[in-house]
Write a structure and sequence with these properties.
Blueprint lengths: L2 E7 L4 H4 L13 H14 L6 E4 L3 H11 L6 E3 L16 H7 L1 H9 L12 H18 L4 E6 L1 H12 L16 E6 L5 E8 L9
Length: 207
């Protein structure tokens, strides 16, 4: 039986708006991010959803909770679906990272799978924990439809894994706040990408 997965990137935060790396730092949704989540909730309220999941970080939790309201369902929180741990880079912009961590940042952008961020993690660790969590969710919900609110890096890893990408290039997949990505699974390891990075539900289009 197939399992349909709606992957949702969390709504915007003030750090998103400021171009800052968030990672495991628990930054809440901004007012704009909450409005984005409400617009997606309205868009999805007519869909039959069997379960809701999110990472345990507040920006993903709140996004999932807002979308879940019309369905009367609670959200299951999965710490393994957290964003990449950016360690000492959290709270910094791309320019600040390259200025302060030149060589290691260059290594990470070319080989993130094996390059560990200072006080953080490498991408391979993210791949392993996220794909394990996804496999468990898909197995648990055979024949059902599930919404999972998570993070940009997590969705890129999941989609890239399904497509058989070299995940050292995962950052080439654009992923907007509160975008919708749809996957169809025929078992935990047989996924098909149906829709990617859709934001047509937003009244104020992203630029």
């Amino acid at each position: 039986m197939k399992t349909r997965i709606y992957l949702v990137r969390h709504g915007e935060t003030l750090w998103n708006a400021g171009g800052k790396f968030q990672g495991h730092t628990d930054v809440p949704l901004s007012d704009n991010g909450r409005q984005q989540a409400k617009e997606l909730s309205e868009h999805m309220q007519g869909h039959k959803i069997d379960a809701f999941y999110s990472s345990d970080l507040s920006r993903a939790k709140e996004t999932a909770e807002i979308i879940a309201v019309p369905h009367g369902l609670t959200v299951n929180y999965v710490p393994e679906l957290r964003e990449i741990n950016f360690g000492l880079w959290e709270g910094l912009t791309y320019k600040e990272i390259t200025d302060s961590f030149g060589e290691i940042s260059r290594l990470w952008w070319s080989s993130p799978l094996t390059t560990e961020i200072p006080s953080g993690e490498n991408l391979q660790a993210v791949v392993e924990r996220c794909n394990k969590a996804m496999g468990e969710i898909v197995s648990r919900h055979a024949g059902e439809t599930v919404v999972i609110a998570v993070h940009g890096g997590v969705i890129r890893v999941i989609v890239g894994s399904i497509l058989g990408m070299d995940l050292n290039h995962f950052w080439k997949l654009r992923l907007d706040n509160v975008s919708l990505t749809i996957l169809e699974y025929h078992g935990p390891e047989k996924g098909i990408l149906e829709l990617y990075n859709d934001t047509c539900h937003l009244r104020k289009p992203l630029i």
